[in-house]
Every structure is written in structure tokens, then in C-alpha cells.
Amino acid sequence: MPEFDLLIIGGGPGGYVAAIRAAQRGLHVAVVEKERPGGVCLNWGCIPTKAMLRSAEVFETLSAASQFGVYADNVRFDFAAVRRRKDGIVAELTGGVAGLLKANGVTVIEGHARFTGPTTVEIFDPGPSPVFTDGPRYGAAPAGASTRTVTATDVIVATGSVPALLPVPGADLPGVITSDGAFGVTEVPARLVVIGGSAVGAEWAGLFATFGADVTVVEMQDRLVPLEDKEIGAALGRSFTQRGISVLTGCTVTGIEQSGDALTVEVDGATTRTIQADVVLVGVGRRPNTADLDLKYAGIDTDARGFILVDERLRTTAEHVYAIGDVTGKALLAHVASHQGITAADVIAGHDAGIDYTAIPAATFTHPEIASVGLTEDAARAGGHEVITAKFPFAALGRAKALGDTEGFCKIVAGARHREVLGVHIIGPSASDLIAEGALAISLEATLDELADTIHAHPTLGEIGMEAALTGLGLPIHTAPRSR
Length: 484
Ligand SMILES: Cc1cc2nc3c(=O)[nH]c(=O)nc-3n(C[C@H](O)[C@H](O)[C@H](O)COP(=O)(O)OP(=O)(O)OC[C@H]3O[C@@H](n4cnc5c(N)ncnc54)[C@H](O)[C@@H]3O)c2cc1C
Known about the structure:
Dihydrolipoyl dehydrogenase, 7-stranded mixed β-sheet, FAD/NAD(P)-binding domain, 22 strands, Enolase-like, domain 1, 3 domains, disulfide bond
């Protein structure tokens, strides 16, 4: 008789959400976690970065307060206090997750799990944390604790991802860090090179630039945030450049050398150059966190990159074993992990559930902020859609003017024939909140006409979707018509 109905390996936004849903469905559930509850998202991802970015935003706003007729003299920041505020928020939220697991009757087992069979895992003390150096890790088994074996009817793998490594000479030098290591930076570096201009790299670049670092971003593709619509990437590049961040696109880093106290970064592009840095932050993607998991003993297959193969019900190639979150490589986002977790828990509890990845919003918390859902213009055309596009600038919105934040635009990609919304792409204030309307529009298969006909409160930033839809219909109210 198995000890648990369901054992979940990993307590991140995939694992802990699955555990709560499964417990609500009446299952006897355990979560094994080797670090701290909340996973990457709460501890060294979404939440701590957004907490620090908020400090940067406050500093930036106060520094420019005179444009609002407000005078704040001698505006300065204390980076140690910025980090302490972040730590407090993380502690509160991770404590909340631990409390929720307990309140739902979920057993939390501290330690590192590895498969010894499809539904049998061995749990052991993983030793010192590679991530946390500021005290005992949540998941450390008590000193001298012996290995324990746990069985369950079903198992969910929710072990997440870890930073990808940069395969160039010098990538292991002191001062070359990943996004995990960035949380250990105690002073704003004078010169920072960020390798990789996707969401993670762009957020750190913006944060340190606001706090006064001389920042260079090196991106291999022809634009920043290359997964976004090309107009969005181009707009972010222009904005970063105006803010004094050096943006080198179409460039690769070929090596890093120690030169005295500094690091010399060799960059290959249209021309070869070197850049001096005090810190080099590598943000070149993520790889599945399956080290020491012994997937082979469970018969779990992975793709060529090591991500676990799953179907739409999150089933792996091993019977009774499911996988959710980053480790499946579907879309490396916390809300996707959580949604997969809810779906897997429902499937295991015998409910009819499946996951659809059509309307997944994604946000990048740079300034200006970016958010998108659905197809980019290029992806829609490549997928055989005949499309129309509609754009509306924040500068034409009264609310954006009042906020003093007018940079950016909303671009909608719609089918040319039925005007169904295929993609929404926003760069500008509160983009990450505004995108919810786009996600709803796509999941309800709404058209431009329906977006335009929906009454939006005035004056709000939310009017941008309606105004963009009106533009797409050739009926713009607050921008001049294209030509008469
Ligand atoms: C800097 C940064 C910023 C980010 N910002 C955002 C954002 O703004 N929005 C967003 O949606 N996403 C963001 N992400 C991505 C987000 O953090 C991940 O998509 C999300 O955490 C994935 O959740 P998960 O449950 O799959 O895995 P994780 O959160 O990685 O959790 C996995 C857990 O499993 C544990 N574990 C692993 N192996 C074992 C084992 N063998 N035994 C026991 N425990 C194990 C780990 O310790 C970890 O706690 C960010 C990521 C980074 C790095």
C-alpha cells in the first residue's frame, strides 16, 4: 500500500499549487522540497526581482519628481535596504506558502528526491545549498538524517529549471554570475555587462542602470526580447539606448578574461570589440533541473534538451508519473507552471482536464514594461494567417499623460477576414496588468469589433486595447485617420 496518493517533487509555483488542488480534491499529498517553499519564483525569480525593480522605480520617479511640481531634494538609495525589503517580501510570501500547504493538510518532506522506481523515491540530505548562503536551506534534512524511501500511487515532477551556462572561456571566473548570483551582489557595480537580452537579462540590466551602473547588454539576436513581436523588441532597444544602456544586438560573447580587478568581455559582431566590466551577468536561458533525479529508473523520457516530455494531460512516458512547470520546457513562466499543476492534480483526481497553451500572457518588467499574449505578427503570417495589425500609442491616452508615462504602444494582430484577435503586444505603463484583457479576448475568440464595442472606463490605461481595436477597424477616435 503506497504511503501517499500523490507525491510531488518540488515546491515551486507548479508543485505547491498542484499540492493544494490535489488536497482539495481529497488526495493524501506530500511535497518534497530541497531548498525553500515557493521555488525559483518566490525565492530567486519573479518576486525578488519585482520587489527590487519597484525600489528602482520609486528612485527613478522621485529623481524626476520636479516634472510633477513636486520637489524631492537629495534623492538617494541604500542598496542594502533595497535588498532587505526584498528579503522581507520573500520571507512573507514563502511563509505564506508553507502555511497554505499546512492548512490544506499537505505533508512537506525536506530533502532531495530521486527516483528508484516509477512511483518510489529516495529522499536524502542534499548538503549545503548552491543557492542560499544566508542560513540553513529550508529543505536540509536534520543533520545526520538517514535516507528515506517514499511511495505514492501517483508522482508529479515539478523540479523547475536552473540557469543555462555560457559555453565560452572565462564563464567560470569570479564576478561572472547568473541571475541566481545577482541576488548575492551587495553593491551596485560600476560597470555591468549583461549577456542575453531576454526577459531576465533585460530586467536586471534596467534595474542596475537605474541605480547608476554603466550597463551594456549583449544579445545574439537582432533585437532585445527576441521572443516578443519585433516592433516591441525594437522599441525596448530604443528606450534602453535613450536611458544610456549600451545595446549590442547581433553580437556574441566569445570569451571573458580577468584583467587586474576588471573582467574583459570579448564580443564578436559586425566588429570585434572588448568591454571592461566589474560584474558580468549571464542570462542566456534556462535548463531543466533534473540533476540527480534519476529519471531513468522511472522510465521518464526527455527531449533532446533534457526537458520532460508530457502530453496535454501532463502525463510523462511513465505510467502514474506526471510533470509540470519549467521542467517540461513548455513556457518557462510561473503562471504556466501553476496552471499545469492544477490540470495535473485534476487529472490525477479523476477529473476531465487538459491544458491549452493558446492564450498564455507573458510580461517583462522593464521600464517601459512589456507584455504579450498570442501570436506575434511574424508568427501569425508564418502560420498561414492573413493578418491586419492595429497600433495605438500611450501618448494619445489622457491617463498616460496624467501619469507622466507616455512611452510605448499597444499592437493587436488580428485575422484579416473575421478580425479575430490573434495576438496582443504592449510596451508601456502597466502592460503586465493590461494584458489580461488580451488573454481574455484570445481565449473567448473575440474580434476587434467586440473589443471596440466594450465600454472602457475613462481615463484609464485600459482604454488602449479599445483604441487600438478602433484603429484596426479604420475608425480611430483619438488618433488621426491614416489618410483621407
Ligand atoms: C530572475 C527570474 C525572474 C523571473 N520572473 C518571472 C516573472 O516575472 N513571471 C513569471 O511568470 N515567471 C518568472 N520567472 C520564471 C519562474 O520563476 C518559473 O517559471 C517558475 O518558478 C517555475 O516554477 P516550477 O514550479 O516549474 O519550478 P521552480 O520554481 O523552479 O521550483 C522547483 C522546486 O523544486 C525543487 N527541487 C528541484 N529538484 C528537486 C529534487 N530532486 N528534490 C526536491 N526538490 C527539488 C527546487 O528546489 C525548487 O524549489 C523568473 C525566473 C527568473 C530566474
